[in-house]
Amino acid sequence: MATNITFHASALTREERSTQLNQRGLTIWLTGLSASGKSTLAVELEHQLLRDRGVHAYRLDGDNVRFGLNKDLGFSEADRTENIRRIAEVAKLFADSGSIAITSFISPYRADRDQARALHEVPTPGESTGLPFVEVYVDVPVEVAEQRDPKGLYKKAREGVIKEFTGISAPYEAPANAEIHIKNHELPVMDAVKQIIEYLDKNGFLPAKKQ
Amino acid sequence: MATNITFHASALTREERSTQLNQRGLTIWLTGLSASGKSTLAVELEHQLLRDRGVHAYRLDGDNVRFGLNKDLGFSEADRTENIRRIAEVAKLFADSGSIAITSFISPYRADRDQARALHEVPTPGESTGLPFVEVYVDVPVEVAEQRDPKGLYKKAREGVIKEFTGISAPYEAPANAEIHIKNHELPVMDAVKQIIEYLDKNGFLPAKKQ
Question: Residue B162 and residue B170: Cα distance in Å, rounded?
Fold first, then answer.
């Protein structure tokens, strides 16, 4: 039957998909204190990727994950780890789809971030290659974050209303080997985004700039 | 500062995103018995959407979900419901990102599918609109599916090795109001895919065909 000529019995490979979409999938994992500026950075980065490069990019953040996929999770240690595990799995699906996943979560524990990285970089059975994982340390001193405190969370943490608050009463384990280290209190957001875009360009992760 | 001129404090709306990508996000939810042909259909549908329409489409199926995001879940009733809940949440994220999510799971219970639909169609606080949800009933008589039985699962179910197997020892609740009903034992796969693409075109869900 003529209509069967173009039938593909097997799924698209990641490479065929990338070629069709003119885009490589990857995950950009932002980590940093509350009020360090992760969300602002993520929003502007997503904008520029879509507008200037025409690539498919998507932010995963508290708003669309904590109240959706992870709404069954609380803040116990086990639940925090499961929270990050699921986010990493979903980011990986986006990256596998050929999209750029931008995750914006405090993700204070090195072990959790390393697990997210391994999930991307180490091919699982049936996969020929891993996926790029770009860890971005959005670094501001805790004093700066506490002074900003747009949601009044640091204040509540100091008052003991919020327990185990990262940077105050719970640790933030700073990345030792992040691909990108942004000193976010010293830069305007556009320069911080530029730092990320330059890294992506240098590593061949983006198509050429639209004319 | 000049670099601040193009800074966007607020996130892209779904509409801005759709305009940038020249694509509307939605979820195509395939449901049907084991061996009804869901995966074959999903693979070919994804191919055609990428190749002929240049749209970003991605399959969620047992391979990339059951062994990843949902690997902590078993087959108890609660776990099956949670399995479908998470798949629906992830599909929604893809649809929200402007992608076409194609889910390929038996999803035998009407209540679970209706919940997946509501999750898409009913805007949650902060969302201005819902997302399209296209339920596709991949319909083959259980006798046909059992005769195909490519993985020998029906045989094991008959022998009692697999308990609570959909269509044999557990119910399949056929959709009453699916957007698309495919009598998949009567059609070559290309015609089944055509039926879906025509529906999507008729409803304005796809950009024009590439020349």
Answer: 11
Taking residues B81-110, report their average pLDDT: 96
B33 pLDDT higher than 60: yes
pLDDT at A50: 93
Please indicate whether, in this complex, the C-beta atoms of A47 and B8 are within 8 angstroms of each other: yes
Per-residue pLDDT at B15: 86
Interface test with A, best of B6, B17, B38, B47 (most A CBs within 10 A): B47
Flag whether pLDDT at B126 surpasses 90: no
State chain A's mean pLDDT as an integer: 91
For chain B, the first-to-last Cα distance in angstroms comes to 44
What DSSP string runs through A134-194? EEEEEE--HHHHHHH-TTSHHHHHHTTSS-S-BTTTB-----SS-SEEEETTSS-HHHHHH
What is the tens place of the pLDDT at every residue in B23-32?
999 999 999 9
Of the candidates B99, B107, B128, B169, the residue annotated as catalytic is: B107
Give bridge partners of residue A182 from the DSSP assignment: A138
A31 vs A140: CA distance, rounded Å: 11
The answer to whether A39 is a known catalytic residue is no
Q: What is the CA radius of gyration of chain B?
A: 19
pLDDT, one tens digit per residue, over A83-128 is: 999 999 999 999 999 999 999 999 999 999 999 999 999 987 777 7
Both tokens of B204, joined, read 């304005």
CA-closest candidate to residue B124, choices A51, A121, A68: A68
Q: Are the C-beta atoms of residues B92 and B131 closer than 8 Å to each other?
A: yes
Please indicate whether, in this complex, the C-beta atoms of B93 and A47 are within 8 angstroms of each other: no
Reported ipTM: the value is 0.93
Please enumerate in sequence order all residues whose Cβ is within 8 A of that of B35, keeping only pairs 6 or more positions apart, or say none: B140, B145, B146, B148, B149, B150, B151, B153, B154
Exposure of B149 by Cβ count < 10 A (0-12 exposed, 13-18 middle, 19+ buried)? Answer: middle
Tokens of A83: 């929270």
Length of chain B, please?
A: 211
When CB atoms are compared, the residue of A8, A69, A89 closest to B68 is A89
**Residue from the list B47, B54, B68 with its beta carbon closest to the beta carbon of A8:** B47
In terms of Cβ atoms closer than 10 Å to its own Cβ (0-12, 13-18, 19+), residue B103 is buried
pTM, two decimals, is 0.94
